[in-house]
Design a protein that fits this description.
Chain lengths: 411, 411
DNA sequence: AATTAGTATGTTGGAGCAACAAACTAATTA
DNA sequence: TAATTAGTTTGTTGCTCCAACATACTAATT
């Protein structure tokens, strides 16, 4: 039982190096003196740390700031040429790959449909193919790749780099890190999709300074990324965050959840539930423009289509979103009472209808969360929309970089 | 915004000192060499750390262990004479004070009924009086007091030492730390009762090595202490853990919760709900021995009394506990899905009926929690029963001691 | 335009202190 | 006596901190 919660001087250096780098990452541009003030570190210590970060090409000087009296400050920023990251999002029926810089700016991307019925091997090979494409495209532009991040539905053993189990894909024990690092000769990280999205919000999104927030991933199901006490909480075995299966809504007539129970929160608030609501409404009323949209586009009922109808002012569409929002709000209220978070961020496919869902969510939360707790909670939309998990895949690599800057070679 | 997540040599020393002390605290007796093996620290470093702990009288050598070949190890233990702790539990209608050693062994205790209707000042003075009594009793026995811990219902600002708001007591902004430290000239700590109980389980109870567990405090309401990633999670403003108000059970005919909503989990599983169940049953059937017990003892319906009936085999009592257990199980299942904890520990007044509740809880959890997640979760009774929060008050002092051993003076 | 004062930034070199490494002594068993 | 394991001693490395210093600018005055 080697717990290794021990500290030594190398740890001190790594901690401070990481602290300064994170500070530059989300307060840039900053000067050495400012950082000394913020962190409480000595000026000379900050200088030494910054020197090292510059040597490792993670940071560079960029102009100076001559405001008031005194010597003007030299401003520091993350070096955009520090390197590039490859992010891979594995969906149930698609694969998405992106290349970004260290700040999450997308430089290249590609998305392909995938059929998990074709089998695990084929889908993984397809993914590897796109990754190789990204690498050759990057080499042509002289990118220096620093790592690959992979986000996947299901439970992940982060340390072993293993997908333990993904119910939607029917996959068990897939050694992603081994597979991808063998092929690409790069450091590889794997993480659950909702968790990855939460880290993305923390690094690049709406939760930059936030110590305690929840990311709610709404789509086929409702999953959560729990960011608590300044870090991701994964639970004992990495299963934490199955917020959609609070089983308390025990009205026996309700739909059976795919988990086998009745009355799970997510059966009232996932994308299926919205489609069902619409179908039920269309059977009764005929005033909606949705049937026409479906016919015109020769497309089945889907969230984007319903959103389109809502945008055109369609009552049935708007009301269905509102109903789903109320159901979501019930769940959010419970989460707020349990976690007292600073923020809750809604992402995933359903978040594209956020403008219709959010007001309903907030309304229900105001009714059902304990007022004292709810007072300061912000409920926000993810700025990444459907790309939340893809940016998440990038973010897990960047997060490792920010945590261990000394792993980057001096050049 | 001085976040001070910085590290320096003092921090290294404190970390390692604390690590070694914690190791001795829950693995004792251990030798220096063993600890070097477990922690990965250098033998000489461990020796230096142990020397300092001995100088501070926190640890002492105790015999030696001549097992196999080689020089026998000198065994180390926490020094029971390191000092004594005063714990204060503030209840809604009682005050309890205990004196223990550093290992939580009770040396002295006293409990008095209190009436919050008499007002805040009177109740606090009554408490201070008992604390003074404890101190004089201790001085007679030459105890060296190291601090006072106070656990209270409601929301606590731990850093400011302030009770922010306790709905049951109707108290607002009580500066407990200031009040008690002025009177007793000792370091004082305040914490919410469920949180304190969770720390007690971590240090002295059923969650010793546990990084991720939940303490469920069941009584008038249902509160929770969330111990995640190896430390207590308090949320943004210290309100985290209001697990009893998940508002999803929306059957309109149900009892209104004291929070104003309908269908809160706790209205189905708190001690009131059990009493109501019994009352409803007694109106229909007359076979129960409960009315006789009430008459004999000239006492109202209460959990201890129902427990007594259950022990005597009374069907109505047992069935009521079972029903409440099933309701609790619904909530537990949700918590298991959300947190994937290693353990859930049931404590508080209701836990005295644990032998009847636990089987029903486990049954419902098995039905409603996701099987993958539930597989390894242990649901246990707190060993402290009704004293969970009192021991908790002790624990918050001991925890500070273990975290910052260098604050203890060399003698 | 030149001078001087004032202020804030960032650098330098030494002090203090932590863990570490290696060589040692100590105490036991086979 | 040899082997083995426990714990100590001595010297090394590398970290932050501190105080003094050099640098670069603004502002006021001559």
């Amino acid at each position: 039982m080697n717990l290794r919660n021990t500290a030594d001087q190398a740890f001190v250096r790594e901690t401070n190096l990481s602290l300064v780098l994170r500070l530059i990452h989300n307060q840039s541009p900053v000067s050495r003196a400012q950082m000394a003030g913020i962190t409480g570190l000595n000026k000379s210590t900050v200088s030494s740390l910054v020197d090292e970060l510059i040597e490792r090409r993670l940071v560079h000087e960029t102009g100076s700031n001559s405001g008031g009296a005194g010597r003007p400050a030299t401003l520091l920023e993350i070096n955009p040429q520090a390197g590039s990251i490859i992010g891979v999002e594995l969906g149930v029926d698609f694969v998405s790959v992106a290349v970004t810089d260290v700040l999450g700016n997308i430089l290249w991307r590609k998305r392909e449909d995938a059929r998990q019925e074709d089998g695990q091997e084929k889908m993984i090979n397809q993914t590897l193919q796109i990754v190789k494409e990204a690498i050759t495209a990057g080499k042509r532009k002289n990118y220096h790749f620093m790592g690959i991040g992979l986000s996947t539905p299901g439970t992940v053993d982060v340390d072993k780099g293993l997908l333990i189990f993904a119910p939607n894909l029917h996959w068990h024990n897939v050694p992603f890190v081994r597979i991808f690092s063998e092929q690409a000769k790069l450091k590889v990280f794997v993480e659950n999709d909702a968790n990855a999205a939460a880290i993305a919000e923390h690094l690049f999104g709406t939760a930059r300074q936030c110590q305690d927030f929840l990311f709610v991933f709404a789509g086929v199901g409702i999953g959560g990324g729990l960011f608590l006490n300044g870090k991701l909480y994964r639970g004992r075995n990495g299963y934490a965050g199955e917020i959609g299966h609070s089983p308390i809504m025990a009205e026996p007539s309700q739909t059976v959840c795919h988990c086998g129970n009745r009355g799970c929160w997510e059966t009232y608030a996932n994308q299926y539930s919205i489609i069902q609501r619409i179908q039920a409404r269309l059977e009764v009323r005929r005033s909606s423009i949705i049937p026409k949209l479906m016919a015109d586009q020769n497309a089945p009922l889907s969230i984007p289509l319903i959103k389109q109808a809502a945008d055109a002012g369609d009552r049935e569409a708007i009301d269905s979103f509102t109903e789903a929002g109320h159901a979501m709000g019930q769940g959010f209220a419970g989460l707020i009472n349990i976690f007292n978070p600073e923020r809750i961020i809604l992402g995933g496919p359903l978040s594209m209808a956020g403008e219709y869902l959010l007001p309903a969510i907030k309304e229900t939360v105001a009714l059902h969360a304990l007022p004292e707790i709810n007072k300061q909670v912000e409920i926000l939309l993810s700025p990444f929309g459907p790309d939340a998990s893809l940016i998440g895949a990038i973010a897990i690599v960047v997060d490792d970089l920010l945590a261990h800057p000394a792993k980057v070679e001096r050049r």
